[in-house]
Amino acid sequence: MKRKGFLYRNSLSIVLLALMCLFWFGQMLTGWKVFSEDQAELGLPAPGFWEYLHSGHFIQATFENWESEFLQMMLYVILTVFLRQKGSAESKSLDKAEDVDREPGPHPQAPWPVKKGGRWLWWYKRSLSLAFAVLFIASFLAHFYGSLKDYNQEAVEKGAPTATAFEYIREQRFWFESFQNWQSEFLAVASIVLLSIWFRQMGSPQSKPVDMANEEIP
Question: What is the pLDDT of residues 171-208, one digit of tens each?
Fold first, then answer.
């Protein structure tokens, strides 16, 4: 491993984060143009680029997507602990114990919570789902803030009354923004769980070996 370079050892995360930043910048530019056109139609001045990045329009659009991603990953991590799918590369075995199910034991290379034990180990054993839960809650709140800000800006422009946070949490618009993203994320997860039963991608850890029977779980 030491002979491998930094880029080789971290290439998957680097490429994924680079793609995320590329597409996020594309969202910024196109969202700014769309918002500016909407403002022009109302006879209002277009915001500058940096001003747009503080707008409810941008904040809402960004975090409603992040929120759904973190919700999906949190529940997927938890559900795969207990639930199975016959033949799927994403499922644990139907009838035998997996390495991830064994109780952790301290050893020289173990993470420090494992060596510490007690409550530290309890939290660490659940830390992946908890980390996604924290990210989901933070994104949910940021989405709510951006959506409320965008809603109230539109209300002011139309001469309509603005809403408080308590009033807006009951607004159908906010929940529509959330549900339309949540359902698509679980469709994507269900797709990889089911499609990995019958289809293969040689070299990918998300796929079973090409010559493995459809009903087998690796």
Answer: 999 999 999 999 999 999 999 999 999 999 999 989 99
Q: How far is CA 25 from CA 11, 31, 49, 125, in A?
A: 21, 10, 11, 36
Q: Report yes or no: 53 and 31 within 8 Å, Cβ to Cβ.
A: no
pLDDT at 2 over 70: no
> Is the pLDDT at 3 greater than 80, yes or no?
no
Chain centre to alpha carbon of residue 105: 31
List the structure tokens of 182: 């949540």
CA Rg, the chain, in Å?
Answer: 23
pLDDT digits (tens, 9 = 90+) for 83-138: 999 999 999 988 888 888 888 989 999 999 999 999 999 999 999 999 999 999 99
Contacts of 24 (CB under 8 A, 6+ apart): 62
pTM of the model: 0.92
| CA dist., res. 7 & res. 1, Å (int) | 12
Cα separation values, 132 from 13, 15, 84, Å: 17, 21, 21
Residue 104 and residue 126 in contact, taking contact as beta carbons nearer than 8 Å: no
Q: Is 38 exposed, middle or buried (0-12, 13-18, 19+ CB in 10 A)?
A: middle
Span between the terminal Cα atoms of the chain, in Å: 25
Helices (H), 97-206: 112-116, 118-124, 127-158, 165-168, 172-198
Spatial contact of 129 and 77, defined as CB atoms under 8 Å apart: yes
